[in-house]
Design brief:
By secondary structure, this protein is mainly beta. 0% of the residues lie in helices and 59% in strands. The chain has one domain (2-77). It has no helices and 6 strands. The chain starts with a strand and ends in a 6-residue tail after the last strand.
Amino acid sequence: MTIVIGKLCSIVNYGNKIDCPIPFASKLINNQIKVHFDSTFGGKNGIAIIRLQEDNLIWELITAPNGEYYFATKAKLLPEKEN
């Protein structure tokens, strides 16, 4: 069993809302992890799936936290392009 340990971070509104750091540890199953998290703005019990799709990380918010939070519903992190 592989455990993924990391931190979530969301920066929105041109840097005016920074929702991080939010530590997590989750089991890696079929190239994805389920992350249970609380927002640094007070929202509780959020759930997201982060999965590896080819060279991209895909974020999908499954259950929005109860209360204030600043995370996208869906997002894709692309690898940095080399010059």
